[in-house]
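Budget justification aside, the reviewers requested a transparent look at the raw inputs and outputs of the sequence design task funded under Objective 1. We therefore reproduce one unedited record. The lines immediately below are the structure tokens for a 369-residue chain.
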């Protein structure tokens, strides 16, 4: 059965005209990958900041309060005791390293078609920027078998088994996190019509995104993944032990999200920003690269069915808090993002922010780092 998110993305193609370069063989930074004025938009803050992204223990008795505070003040948090085994996290990381260590000619056999969704290639947001990002990616939507056969014609069983197990466990975790986030808003799954009769979000759609960031000869002039928000409900990210992910924090600039052993990064996407009527910000994030250390991340991007109508939840609306956004399906929103890019949320906003229910700054992008 075709994945619903694939139908959604095919309806809103993003054409990428940049050519994939084998970054592992490059000795100097090509002009095509040389970004300038990386700090023009926002000031840069690294590990020296006194504030760090919240870390939430899902077994904590105050988990609803902790999740709610993290969502409202940051739009991103790390989770411990999430139920995903270290063995599986190690396996998915090894799987990603095995994939990206293949020769370029082999990876290109599984390339994304010009208007395709799954496969090997550059990030979807690449088409919105004049320079190429210092990264390569591999997207899986639905069954991984077809592309896996292209990568490993003799035996792709191990690859497919790990992917399927990881997706199964991530789906469980995504549902758990959504219920916690709803609970932090004083809501239940019954307040979300598309949650399904059992409140299990059975109709949800997902994509798995592998991201590889090779060592870079001039990291101060390169960009791993440009600033963007995710067009999802939420994204769950596993990153290896190399720093690189940064989130924009009001008043602090760019704050690095340090890799914590066994922890996963959870960030709010645009659709949850809409559902919360702007209370929970869709976090702007990017990835910087490293001169000596390789970085790998695996993002699980979760959303509803492509045709589900998303709007501010009814119980969050009253006379003092009118709906800030109109109704939109995920498919329609991706189309808006493909057209307006960093103005997508603003383009569907009805009212200016009121009484603490506010839209964040205009956002950039449609993927995860």
């Amino acid at each position: 059965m075709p994945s619903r998110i694939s139908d959604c993305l095919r309806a809103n193609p993003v054409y990428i005209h940049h050519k994939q370069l084998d970054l592992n063989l490059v000795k100097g930074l090509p002009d095509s990958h040389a970004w300038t004025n990386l700090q023009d938009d926002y000031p840069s803050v690294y590990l020296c900041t006194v504030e760090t992204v919240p870390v939430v223990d899902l077994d904590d008795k105050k988990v609803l309060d902790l999740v709610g505070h993290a969502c409202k003040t940051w739009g991103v948090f790390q989770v411990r005791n999430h139920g995903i085994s270290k063995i599986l996290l190690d396996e998915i990381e090894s799987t990603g390293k095995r994939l990206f260590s293949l020769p370029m000619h082999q990876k290109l056999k599984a390339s994304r078609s010009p208007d395709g969704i799954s496969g090997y290639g550059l990030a979807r947001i690449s088409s919105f920027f004049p320079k190429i990002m210092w990264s390569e990616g591999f997207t899986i939507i639905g069954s991984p078998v077809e592309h896996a056969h292209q990568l490993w014609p003799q035996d792709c069983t191990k690859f497919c088994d790990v992917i399927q197990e990881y997706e199964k466990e991530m789906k469980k975790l995504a549902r758990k996190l959504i219920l916690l986030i709803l609970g932090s808003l004083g809501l239940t799954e019954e307040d979300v019509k598309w949650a399904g009769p059992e409140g299990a979000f059975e109709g949800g759609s997902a994509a798995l995104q592998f991201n590889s960031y090779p060592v870079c000869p001039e990291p101060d002039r390169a960009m791993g993944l440009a600033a963007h928000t995710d067009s999802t409900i939420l994204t769950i990210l596993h990153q290896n032990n190399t720093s690189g992910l940064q989130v924009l924090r009001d008043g602090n600039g760019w704050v690095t999200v340090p890799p914590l052993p066994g922890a996963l990064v959870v960030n709010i996407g645009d659709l949850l920003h809409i559902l919360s009527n702007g209370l929970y910000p869709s976090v702007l994030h990017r990835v910087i690269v490293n001169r000596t250390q390789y970085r790998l991340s695996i993002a699980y991007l979760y959303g509803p069915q492509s045709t589900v109508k998303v709007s501010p939840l009814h119980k969050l609306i009253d006379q003092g808090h009118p709906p800030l956004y109109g109704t939109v399906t995920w498919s329609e929103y991706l189309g808006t993002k493909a057209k307006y890019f960093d103005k997508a949320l603003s383009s569907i906003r009805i009212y200016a922010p009121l009484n603490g229910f506010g839209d964040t700054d205009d956002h950039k992008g449609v993927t995860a780092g």
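Residues 157-184 form the longest helix (28 residues). Residues 7 and 306 are 8 Å apart (CA to CA). Computational costs for records of this kind are itemized in the attached budget.
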